[in-house]
Design a protein that fits this description.
The protein is an alpha/beta fold. Helix content is about 45%, strand content about 15%. The protein has a single domain, classed as 3-Layer(aba) Sandwich (Rossmann fold). β3, α4 and β4 form a beta-alpha-beta unit.
Length: about 150
């Protein structure tokens, strides 16, 4: 047996986490979403950024077509109590209730708590270090994304 074959076996390499970053609604500010997308990419994730003015239907269709593990919504418009539940419902109707729906923006803490009760993942406010979001997604993926 060669020395390499005798070495301890490696754990199977996990495939990259696939994340769709979307800006739903009429909000035209996407700087934060682009910063998050770049940070996730730098952390080794495959990132699809859908651009501005996406409808929940467009976001869900892209999530299904791209076979993503995570959908991250960036919402600054105040429509979070409508948009997050709509995307969650559409993902479930598409047979993708396994997708982590997370995101952030200008969302009051009490609304974050209510959205989490409705099945939305952890939400992040302005100024959150990207490392916190990366860690959250990686920990979730370790339990939910196949190798």
């Amino acid at each position: 047996m060669s020395p390499r074959a005798a070495a301890s076996p490696r754990a199977p390499k996990r495939r990259p986490i696939r994340v769709l970053v979307a800006k739903p609604g009429l909000d035209g500010h996407d700087r934060g979403a682009k910063v998050v997308a770049a940070a996730l990419r730098d952390a080794g994730m495959e990132v699809i950024y859908t651009g501005l003015h996406q409808t929940p239907e467009m976001i869900t269709q892209a999530a299904v077509q791209e076979d993503v593990d995570v959908v991250g919504l960036s919402i600054l418009s105040g429509a979070h109590m409508t948009l997050f539940p709509r995307v969650r419902t559409l993902l479930e109707q598409a047979g993708r209730s396994d997708v982590l729906l997370t995101g952030g923006g200008i969302i009051p803490p009490e609304d974050m708590e209510e959205l989490e009760r409705q099945g939305v993942g952890k939400l992040f406010g302005p100024g959150t270090p990207t490392t916190e979001l990366i860690k959250y997604i990686q920990e979730w993926a370790a339990e939910h994304v196949p190798v």
